[in-house]
């Protein structure tokens, strides 16, 4: 299991489990996140609290899920990115495609 | 300081990927490379090694790291599958046909940039990024690429090249990062 879902009253937090969010878990991450969209959640917080680094395969899966969520009128936001991951999002401008919050609490409060 | 270099061997497995990144960054620290520049280099290393795992088909990859006062040069060498690029829907074959030499091709583009490759003599390809805009608006998500590997490396590096060595039948990715560049 790549994510553990923590259900709140009006949102779900998808906690990424592997420290290395890379090509080995990208497909399962996308499948599991899309399943949460299929289950009807409209506000999904993807928590990177446990993640040390991400690679391009994982980023591709994340963007693919964002497209799927938007097509289903759902929203995916991110939280808990470490400095390296935050810098990477800025480098390739993905910080414009996602709302990014410092903590899961902040992401839930923004809803 | 003078120049320094070291070779690293990577076994092309995902399990060993991040350990190799850490091993190389420790070497860069020993060479006196600043933490800021090492932070920039980490995603380059991740993507070069990820490329090896996903695409090379070889059992191992040689990573040659050279550091001097101005630059860090990272060469990734393997004896696996040559880089696959498409031109007008057709796969580029190595050695490059004379018809394509010095041509510039778009690899992919999205809301904020175009990743391009310039084909050059000697079976070389140099990558560069064009058309970054600084809009603060949220993009049309349908126009966001899902392919980031080459884009990440090219965005960090002062130059990024691929060279197919026909005599040795090996693939050479050459990433050069300025020690002065601020991202």
Automatic annotation (TrEMBL), chain A:
Alphabetical list of InterPro entries matching this protein: STAS_dom, STAS_dom_sf
Protein source organism: Mucilaginibacter pallidiroseus
Top-level taxon: Bacteria
One Pfam entry name: STAS
Name assigned to this protein: STAS domain-containing protein
PANTHER family assigned to the protein according to its UniProt record, in alphabetical order: ANTI-SIGMA FACTOR ANTAGONIST TM_1081-RELATED (PTHR33495:SF2), ANTI-SIGMA FACTOR ANTAGONIST TM_1081-RELATED-RELATED (PTHR33495)
Molecular-function annotations in GO: anti-sigma factor antagonist activity
PROSITE patterns: STAS (PS50801)
TrEMBL record, chain B:
Highest classification ranks of the organism: Bacteria, Pseudomonadati, Bacteroidota, Sphingobacteriia, Sphingobacteriales
Keywords: ATP-binding, Nucleotide-binding
Protein's name in the database: ATP-binding protein
GO molecular function, a single term: ATP binding
Top-level lineage group: Bacteria
